[in-house]
Amino acid sequence: MLGNKENAGGFSVGIIGAAGYTAGELMRILLNHPMANIVWAQSESQAGLPVWQIHHDLLGETDLCFTDKGGDADVVFICSGHGKSKAVVEGQLKDFKGKIIDLSNDFRLDKDADGFVYGLPEAFRNDIIGADRIANPGCFATSIQMALLPLAKAGLLNEVHVTGITGSTGAGQKPQETTHFSWRANNMSVYKAFTHQHLGEICQTLHKMDTNWEGKINFVPVRGDFPRGIMASVYMDCDLTEDEAVELYKTYYKDEPFVWVCDFNPDMKMVVGTNKCVVYVRKYGEKIHIISMIDNLCKGASGQAVQNMNLILGLDETMGLKLKANRF
After folding, report:
1. Could you give the residue ranges of the DSSP H alpha helices within the chain?
2. Residue 83 — very low, low, confident or very high, per pLDDT cuts 50/70/90?
3. Which residues, 6 or more positions from 248, have their beta carbon under 8 angstroms from its beta carbon?
4. CA-to-CA distance for 98 and 13, rounded, in angstroms?
């Protein structure tokens, strides 16, 4: 099959919920991964159709067809909607012996983990390596945590304020009023103010890294009029000077292959289509301000899932993920 390489020493991959945005992005990455071989892509609604008829960008890249049933594989990615993965794990994958990486929010909180490890490499790499089940972080959660991890590690967190703007693909493939082009184009709106579902996993991580933190996160999410990308604008009180703050971030992320602390005000085109996170740190009076940029479908979902796959399989963490953004 085109793009499905029978690699000597490679491994097999199955995808559940394969017709959605995150699954399409996952296949885009895995078809160019030197060790991965996609052996099945499960979608009951699209069974029998070539994958490229739904994911048009894969035309000419693979002749894989959707199937209504899975099979055996070394690694299975669950790209089903939120609230559905638990039933998949307890049903279809009940006796599965391979690795599972779930992209929903079903297993991200410790109280729901059921053997899943929270897959944020920049915070929990040692836990991820060798794990059998990974709960892939949410997109907003990834971006916001990247903005706060160095401060949390240093015990410098205070009450946090965040405005985050996200692209329409973050809402999934199923059509909705707020993802319809005629509504979304040239438009913006706030949603789930102070109640977003990613707050639980963000606070869980921050409390693990800074056990003395008793603050809270004031998060206002915004729908943007673009398809891909997240910008998190984060600020809080901080006693560090600007130079000290920048050095703290550069030290924390110096060995992270996908996080870049830049010295200029970043923009979203720097990260869209890549697994990068770009972080920018400045001080304004008593406030530290951090901008964190990611692609919600890549570092915020499928790219991070492949990063986690590489870690649990003992591969180079960057394998298949050296992706360049399209600047113009």
Report:
1. 21-30, 85-90, 121-128, 139-153, 181-184, 199-209, 242-252, 303-312
2. confident
3. 150, 151, 154, 240
4. 10
For residue range 210-247, list pLDDT tens digits in order: 999 988 999 999 999 988 999 999 999 999 999 999 99
Distance CA 77, CA 33 (A): 15
Please tell me which residue in 65, 79, 139, 277 is annotated as part of the active site.
Answer: 139
CA distance 182 to 319: 39
CA atoms within 13 A on the CB side of 112: 18
Average pLDDT of the residues in 74-97: 94
Nearest by Cα to 35 from 325, 318, 323? 318
Q: How far is CA 140 from CA 53, 172, 222, in A?
A: 30, 14, 11
Mean pLDDT of 189-218: 94
Q: Collapsing DSSP states into helix, strand and coil, what is residue 51?
A: helix
What confidence tens digit (pLDDT) does each residue in 252-275 have? 999 999 999 999 999 999 999 999
pLDDT tens per residue, range 95-105? 999 999 999 99
Cα 168-170-172 angle, rounded to 5 deg: 90
The answer to whether 52 touches 62, Cβ cutoff 8 Å, is: yes
Q: Which residues contact 221 (CB under 8 A, 6 or more apart)?
A: 140, 164, 165, 166, 190, 191, 192, 193, 196
The reply to whether 298 belongs to the active site is no
Has this prediction a pTM greater than 0.90?
yes
Total residue count of the chain as it appears in this document? 328
